Structures are given as structure tokens and as C-alpha cells.
Amino acid sequence: EELFDFLGPNNRFIPQLSIDCVIFGFHDNQLKILLLKMKKMKMWSLPGGYVEQEEDIDSAALHILKNRTGLADIYLEQFRVFGKATRTTKESMKLFLEVNVADISNYEWMMKRFVSVGYYALVDFSKVTPSPDVFTESCEWFEIKKLPSLAFDHREIVDKALETLRITLDSKLVGSNLLPDTFTMNELQSLYETILGTPLRRNNFQRKILSLDILERVEKLYTGAANKAPYLYRFKKA
């Protein structure tokens, strides 16, 4: 079977350890995440996978992300381990296998309890080529406020990733990975607002951002009225 051929023997991977990735992108003033639709089911899931016996965990996560986005140079950070004994991975995986394969005996190892290492990734939306994997039939972007029903405990993983993103918004220079090389202050404010889920006062936001000393002004954006054109900014290089 295609799935079994793809996975190979069950001793190829570290037992009961998986990776789940929350891939953030910013487009049309909305924060979005990349999701996969599971084959023959109405559920969606986060991009994820297993860790090979001789593979670094970070390397496994980067490999998963490259396959789903087509990008090799990605900002990636591990943010939490999900290991509740009551995780719904066993039941959901059993249901998926029963729907998609004729004989599930080869996949007993996949129906055990798994501990998952959560990563979040920040990508340039315009450079991503979404690609499904062997478990899924489509790969699409969804606005963070309009997510479909998610498999396993992936909604909790998304919520924790977003919580982490909010906490590290300034210190990790999140915008430098989600915005193009140059941007207006309004575009940066829109990014902050969609991540935080709340509107911000323009003057207060600009004052705060400039006080952080993380931006350099580039030039005015040409609009035909030089005195009204907004300045362009970029993040200072470390």
C-alpha cells in the first residue's frame, strides 16, 4: 500500500514521538495558518510527522516544513511538548486508518499514545507552495479566526502557538519573518492587530515601535503626493 511503502517498517522511527507544526503566514491583513485535509475525512490537521532513529528533532521539523511549503530557509521554533495521557491521537488515527487502508495490522504502532513536540514557523506567504502529504488530500491557508474542525488536539496546539507568538511578538521580531523586506507602519500595525486580536491606537503603536529601536526608515512610498506618502521601513539586521 502507498501509505505503508511511504512509512516503511515501524522501527524506522523513534517510538511514540511525533512533531506538529503551526505554520503562520500573513496575507490581506490577516494572520493565517497552513492546514492539511485528511484523506476521505472532513477533519483538518496541522502538518506533522515522525522522527527517524538517527535524526535530530529540529531536522525532522525542517524536513516536514520544506515538504509542505517548498521553503528551506524558515524561521522555526520549538514552543511546547504535548504529552497528556488523554490526547486523542489514538482514536483519531484508528478512525483515519480504518477509512483509508484495507488492513490496519501494519499500522498498530501508529495507534499508540504519542507525545508530540510542537513547533511554530513564520513564513513569507507569497513564497509558499502548499503541498499535501501521503496522509492528506489538500493543503490550504485558513484565517486564524475561521479555522475548520481540527483532528486530534490540534486546536489546543494552535492556541498555544498563538499564545507564544503574542508573548514573543517584540523580542523575537516576529514581523521580520511575516512581512516583506520593506513595509509601511500601517502594515506592521495590521500584523500586530491580527496577532493580538485587538485594535491598537495608531499614535501609541508608532511611538512604542520606534522606541524599541528595531526599525530603520528607508524612503517614502511613491503615491503621486510626496507629502502624503507613508514612509517605508525595514527591520534592522542583528
Structural class: alpha+beta
In DSSP terms (H or I, runs of 4 or more residues), the helix count works out at: 7
Low-confidence blocks of residues: none
Distance between the termini: 49 Å
Spatial shape: elongated
Description of the structure:
There is one protein chain. Strand 2 and strand 3 form a beta hairpin. The protein has helices at 2-7, 57-69, 89-100, 154-167, 175-178, 185-196, 202-211, and strands at residues 13-27, 30-38, 44-45, 48-52, 75-82, 115-122, 136-143, 183-184, 215-220, 231-235. It is built from 7 helices and 10 strands. The N and C termini lie far apart (49 Å). The mean pLDDT is 88. The protein is an alpha+beta fold. The strands form 2 sheets. Strands 1, 2, 3, 4, 5, 6 and 7 form a 7-stranded mixed β-sheet that branches. A 3-stranded antiparallel β-sheet has the order 8-10-9.
Task: Note the main attributes of this structure.
alpha+beta, 238 residues, 7-stranded mixed sheet, elongated, 3-stranded antiparallel sheet
How is this fold's topology laid out?
Elements: H1 2-7, E1 13-27, E2 30-38, E3 44-45, E4 48-52, H2 57-69, E5 75-82, H3 89-100, E6 115-122, E7 136-143, H4 154-167, H5 175-178, E8 183-184, H6 185-196, H7 202-211, E9 215-220, E10 231-235
